[in-house]
Amino acid sequence: MTILVTGATGNVGRQVVEHLVQRGADVRALVRDPSKARFPAGVSVVQGDFLDVDLLRKAMSGISTLFLLNAVVPDEFTQALVALNIARSAGIERIVYLSVLHADVYVNVPHFAGKFGVERMIEQMDFKATILRPAYFIQNDLMIEDIITGYGTYTMPIGAKGLAMIDVRDIAETAALELLRREQAAEPLALERINLVGPQTLTGADVAAIWSDVLARPINYVGDNTEGFEQNLKQFLPAWMAYDMRLMGERFLTDGMLPEAGDVDRLTALLGRALRPYRDFASQIAASA
């Protein structure tokens, strides 16, 4: 029984592979360039691409459980549909899919709408799946580390509604545990959604206050200018992606990204420990600044 991990060289996928190996799973990692892959001993590395049907068929041959993670790219939805169709043809029923919190709410944000479309396909095709819906990744703020520490401003458009920020390490470990739960079940388990959230819901002002505390100097929240946010992102991201991120930021401001009742307790019980707070991340950055 083998688990196929897609997106295996990314921050989440790589950690999922490591957690699975630590727990004795038979893991196959899908990568574009096997020569650059660096995984723990025992991981089977296969070359593939979501749009290369022949390679994807080969990669999914003999697989019992699939971790589906699609990058934010213009054809993300198409890539996911191809992967799910090939998975069904290969007889794979057990799936863990990484979606996003409020995929069904942020309907005008391209990568949210795409992920919600994939969720609907998983349901319509009757896959036995866990759909993981993570909130804002704490580690996204590494993109603005220099701005925070160098200019004293926090520029992410979080707003005043609040985001239930979650550490990437908690996302990866939860995904690995769900993959193992489905892999080891005597029969395929019913479809389930799990909101992945952090221990606190933080506003822009809250995050700026945390940074002010750990850096011992004032850090100001200036993130409500989504037009400026888009223009800054265009310096290192494609224009379409910068606009996608701006639309997401605008929904942060109007809707927030809030947990449901019981989400934190459920994740805490699943992991068997407390969720990692934003302050730990900020303190680690401050210590090396």
Account of the 3D structure:
There is one protein chain. With 289 residues, the protein is an alpha/beta fold. Helix content is 45%, strand content 13%. The chain contains 11 helices and 9 strands. The chain has helices at 11-22, 53-60, 76-89, 110-124, 145-151, 168-184, 204-215, 226-233, 239-255, 263-271, 278-288; strands spanning 3-5, 27-31, 44-47, 65-68, 94-98, 128-134, 153-154, 192-196, 220-221. It has a 7-stranded parallel sheet, with helices on both faces. A two-stranded parallel ribbon has the order 7-9. Strand 4, helix 3 and strand 5 form a beta-alpha-beta unit. Helix 1 (11-22) packs across helix 6 (168-184) and helix 3 runs parallel beside helix 4 (110-124). The longest helix has 17 residues, at 168-184. The radius of gyration is 19 Å and the shape is globular. The model has no long low-confidence stretch (mean pLDDT 97).
